[in-house]
Specification:
The chain is an all-alpha fold. It is 75% helix and 0% strand. The N terminus is likely disordered.
Length: 482
């Protein structure tokens, strides 16, 4: 299971070594180092919640332990806390090795959306440590996160040459082959992963996710259950089983699985995830009110810890749900409330810009729902202006999403198709919108192709995909009957 989050993509696992060509860890305390290494081991097993106490002990023993702070960012439920941990690591980066400093700076660049700069830092890291598997892993994971799978494969294969028994590259390569729909190669990679660490739950979880993707739901559940036999509290497998049950339309069973996950969760972050996935199950079932109720619970949890970025993101999510449900006045009021909160918030300019981009994205979509074409164009231009300021190409791809939707509203279907083809086509939402433009143009074959992509995407449960999957399934059935 590829549960590598945005931050974890930047945090491969360090190696204590004396050689000049190997990454080193800088700490003044042997006890801090021992706790860090234990946390690193747990991170490799995708067990973040158990890693946290070890990292907290590490920074207690050594308050200048930069890499421990960087890893702690992964475990914090609050976006504000995560940014604070990264800033703390950066403040200490002048007192660590060259490799650690490059890792910290690259990680910060990634979180701030400066992907070009992030690539430069990690390329420099590999140049300095060309035979260190962990240095190679940073760059490989960077390309993986940017969906540049061919480059990622080059570096994962280099890691295997350095250490054929290191398990992580086989997991990541399995996912790449899965995304490329080379299921035979994916299965081979995951089975190698299982062979290397057969007593760990994650390899079975990863293989189960491949089976989920292939639509083999019952066999997928069986493999998730193998993971849970090894670790009954392995949260990712509970989510995977719930996802299979949702696709099998066994919604109550799915929620039962997620409620159990909520009970065993050891921190707020995991409990919030359980709430969120329960919300997704309600959306899949068509109950928007219950979905909104669950998502609003998350807002109040974030409010309780003054986590303004998460609160605003939550409001954007609810806005989208409301206008997709036809409740445009409620959506508009909530979006206005999010804007007011953003303007008052004491946040860095970069974070404010990122959140502001989300505001103009939702504002454009809402205007289109209200048939306010002139306003939609104005709002999308505001989105473009902010997106153009980043070194990350992804925001501009979502500008093409907005441009495609605007062109569709103007009945310019060729232009709409062109715009959507420049958007992020790894996102089923964009594929679904592309299919709508194809239908309007009477290109039935291409529409069917895009809708099949959406229906068979079979992602782990999330709101965006769930929002379009059921629609795509119904629409695909109608087109095939015509």
């Amino acid at each position: 299971m590829n549960k590598i989050s945005v931050i974890l993509l930047l945090l491969p696992f360090l190696f204590l070594a004396c050689q000049d060509d190997r990454l080193t860890i800088t700490t003044k305390s042997d006890l801090a180092l021992q706790n860090f290494l234990k946390a690193r081991e747990l991170f490799e097993k995708v067990n973040y919640q158990d890693a946290t106490p070890y990292l907290e002990t590490a920074v207690k023993e050594d308050s200048l332990f930069a890499m421990a702070y960087l890893f702690l960012a992964q475990s914090r439920p609050s976006a504000t806390e995560r940014f604070a941990m990264i800033e703390k690591a950066k403040s200490l980066s002048d007192h660590v090795s060259k490799g650690e400093r490059l890792i910290i700076l690259g990680s910060e660049a990634g979180v701030l959306g400066n992907t070009k700069r992030q690539e430069q830092y990690f390329q420099e890291l590999v140049e300095a440590y060309p035979n260190d598997k962990y240095a190679l892993l940073y760059l490989a994971n960077y390309y993986f996160g940017q969906r540049d799978y061919e480059k990622a494969l080059v570096y994962y294969k280099r890691i295997v040459q350095v250490d054929p028994n290191y398990s992580i590259p086989y997991n990541q390569m399995g996912y790449i082959y899965r995304y490329q729909e080379d299921y035979t190669a994916a299965e081979e990679s995951f089975k190698k992963y299982i062979k290397l660490i057969p007593d760990d739950p994650n390899p079975y979880d990863s293989y189960a996710e491949l089976l989920l993707k292939m639509g083999e739901y019952e066999v997928s559940i069986e493999n998730y259950e193998k993971a849970l036999e090894i670790d009954p509290d392995f949260i990712h497998s509970h989510r995977g089983i719930a996802t299979n049950l949702v696709y099998m339309r066994e919604y109550k069973k799915a929620r039962g699985q997620l409620k159990h996950l909520y009970k065993i969760a050891q921190d707020d972050n995991l409990r919030e995830n359980a709430h969120f996935w329960i919300a997704v199950s309600y959306l899949a079932e068509g109950d928007v009110d219950k979905t909104l109720e669950e998502i609003e619970k998350l807002y109040h949890i974030a409010e309780g810890r003054s986590d303004v970025p998460t609160m605003i993101g939550n409001m954007y999510t609810r806005t989208a749900l409301l206008f997709e449900d036809g409740r445009l006045d409620e959506a508009e009021a909530l979006l206005a409330e999010s804007r007011e909160l953003l303007e008052k918030a004491d946040l860095t300019p970069v974070i404010k810009n990122n959140l502001g981009r989300g505001y103009w994205f939702q504002k454009t979509r809402l205007a289109l729902k209200k048939n306010q074409l002139k306003e939609a164009k104005e709002y999308s231009e505001k989105y473009r202006e902010i997106a153009a300021q980043t070194e990350n190409p992804m925001p501009m791809r979502y500008y093409h999403t907005l441009a495609g939707m605007i062109s569709y509203t103007e009945n310019q279907y060729d232009k709409s198709i062109s715009e959507f083809k420049q958007s992020n086509l790894d996102d089923p939402f964009n594929r679904y919108q592309l299919a709508q433009a194809c239908i309007a143009k009477d290109d039935k074959d291409m529409a069917i192709q895009e809708l099949e992509y959406v229906v068979n995407y079979n992602d782990l449960m999330n709101l965006g995909y769930t929002m379009v999957r059921n629609r795509a399934e119904k629409q695909l059935g109608r087109l095939k009957m015509e």
